[in-house]
Amino acid sequence: MKKRILSLAISAALVLTMLPAGALAAGDKGTPPVYNKATGCYEISTLDQLLYLSGSWKDGAPRDGHYVLTADIDMSGVKGFKPIASKKDKGFIGTFDGQFHAIKGLRVEYEKKYAGLFGYVGNQDDQAYIKDVALLDCYVTGQQNVGALAGVNYGTITGCVVTGEVKCLDLSNSHTAGGICGKLKRAKARSSVMLRTAISTQTFPLRMMRAALPAFRTAAAIWHAALQPVRSIPPQRAAR
To answer: What are the pLDDT digits (tens) for 24-37?
Structure first.
């Protein structure tokens, strides 16, 4: 059977919420994130610190840790990045908070399953969270379960923006791909509800994409406001 390739060009901003129910050499390991004792969080402010999370978990980067981005990160030109938590039995079960920062130019070429910035997020027993981060101009390819943010998601992804291209190299045997996550799983131990909202690229997202990194934090208030219920405002009386 010939392989079929699914290619998704992502030009809209998507919000997905699941409620509980230079080049990188192959041997590079990067630099561990800085642990902030006051907040209990691992702070990522540099490209090297993000690269340290690539592939399997290492000392100084626990898979149940709470990670925060404290700066925008440009990954343009980086090659050889393996998905964070690339193994199902050692998936991510912590928190990744972008704090309205952006990761630009992520390139993942992973000819295996679970391809994305994260490979496997959460599981049947453990929740995990990814929130408030933008992936701009990303390019992600994988064999199956391919998504820009997560190959497989058991947890909660919310307030995130993705632009770029996602490719599933083999669509046989019900292999899946998606812009935010390649496969959305339901945990048996809790009820799950999925809310999917797309906002027109003709308004805020398009302006954000054009302005790229600087605009994301500025537009964060607009982004959240756009998701709030519309309030009707009574017309004012004409001045006499």
So the answer is: 543 456 899 999 99
Token pair for 127: 């929740």
Tokens of 105: 């130019």
Q: Is 217 helix (H, G, I), strand (E, B) or coil?
A: helix
| Rounded-to-integer distance, Cα 119 and Cα 97, Å | 17
Supply the DSSP string of 137-185, one letter for each residue: EEEEEEEEEEESSEEEESSEEES-EEEEEEEES--GGG--EESSEEEE-
Cβ neighbours of residue 207 under 8 Å, at least 6 residues apart?
Answer: 215, 219
Residue 137 token pair? 């101009």
Q: Which two tokens stand for residue 2?
A: 């010939």
Beta strands in the chain (DSSP E): 6-10, 13-19, 34-36, 41-44, 66-69, 73-74, 95-104, 107-115, 118-121, 129-147, 150-153, 156-158, 161-168, 177-178, 181-184, 193-199
pLDDT tens-place string over residues 2-26: 555 555 554 333 333 333 334 554 3
Give the β-pairing of 193-199 and 13-19: antiparallel
- pTM of the full structure: 0.73
What kind and span of H or E run contains 211?
A: helix 204-211
Supply the DSSP symbol for 238: P
